[in-house]
Amino acid sequence: MPAFRRRKGNLPRLVPELDDAPLGQVRRRVETAWSRGSLDTAVMALMANVIDDAGEDWDRKAHRLSVLAQSAGRSLPGIWRQHRPEHHGALLLHAWSDLIQARQQGAVVDLGITRETCLQAAALIPADPTPWTLQLAVLRLERRPSTELSAIWREIKARDPWNREAHLQALGYLSPDECGSSAMVLDLLDGVRSAMPSDAPAAGLELTAFVHSHQRAVAGGGLSAVGAGEIWRRPDAARALDHAAHYWTSPGFLTHAAALADLNLLAYALLKSSRTAEAGTVLRATSGVATPWPWSLEGEPLERYAHYHGRYASEDPDAKRGGRRR
């Protein structure tokens, strides 16, 4: 990944598509359609193409669906589904939109219909883990018992063992804030730590869990907040940071769709553990692309990202020595 330079194109910015340029083009067309409240056949074709073009890269397909669902609002996915009721992308986008709406306070969404939509999509492309990942997201929202998780988890793992979105959904479900406990989170991490390839799409799962633990401690106030930094001195957290800081910025190491989001996560974790020099290196590797989370934990995301970048990563150490980053 390229080093951060102070060029116009690399100034700190929030772009939901991250570095997926084709997705960014479609997102902008979808947002224009949303602003005028209508969806023409050209935009529907663009959405279908960008989802279909992901092929069997299920991780990228989930990333594209997530970004489009956030951009399309409530009505556009329904319009597309009415026009293309047998297109798996239209079904999945509609289901994803349902989940986004269901998280809004006061929203009324029939999640039973969402489950039916997921089953229809699963029948169209049996190899795709995305419908099952969305089923897992429905379980989270409904706070269903963990006995219902196992069957869905088996379906996901059989199709895409290291799917990023699925693992993050599982982490959320098993957290003490939702349907599980700290012990259940540790069981999940123990179950994947030794088997997961270090460059898998779900490589950021462990760091995500540590950031959530840190934030939970801060939110608890009192002695819990004072001791929140101790999380990063735990041997397992230090090992995870050491590994990620060493490998993740290597050219071509992280290739999954949300790699830039994971680099934002790593930079934040390094800052919280006072490893500022390494955080600066990681921030440069993001090429100026910020993500809402985890920077939103401290305030306005882009402002916080820009603050830390300006403080720790505004200059490339190799450039100062006359060297050249490859």
Describe the structure.
This protein folds into two domains: about 1-20 and about 205-325, no CATH class; about 20-165, Serine Threonine Protein Phosphatase 5, Tetratricopeptide repeat, CATH 1.25.40. The longest helix has 16 residues, at about 20-35. By secondary structure, the protein is mainly alpha-helical. The chain has helices at about 20-35, 40-50, 60-70, 75-85, 90-100, 110-125, 130-140, 150-160, 165-175, 180-195, 205-220, 220-225, 235-245, 260-270, 275-285, 290-295, 300-310, 315-320; strands spanning about 15, 290. It is about 65% helix and about 0% strand. The chain is globular. Helix 3 (about 60-70) packs across helix 5 (about 90-100), helix 4 (about 75-85) runs antiparallel to helix 5 (about 90-100) and helix 6 packs antiparallel against helix 7 (about 130-140). The protein is built from 18 helices and two strands. This is DUF4034 domain-containing protein. It comes from Streptomyces kronopolitis.
Would you identify the regions where 5 or more consecutive residues have pLDDT less than 50? 1-7, 319-326
Q: How many β-strands, per DSSP?
A: 2
CATH top level assignment of the largest domain: Mainly Alpha
CATH architecture of the largest domain: Alpha Horseshoe
Q: Give the rounded overall mean pLDDT.
A: 91
Counting structural domains, the number is 2
- End-to-end Cα distance, whole Å, is 9 Å
Helices and strands, in order, run as EHHHHHHHHHHHHHHHEHHH
- The number of distinct helices, counting runs of at least 4 residues, comes to 18
- Secondary structure: helix percent: 55-70%
Taken from the alpha-carbon principal axes, the silhouette is: globular
Strands of the biggest beta sheet: in what spatial order? 1-2
Radius of gyration: 20 Å
Protein name: DUF4034 domain-containing protein
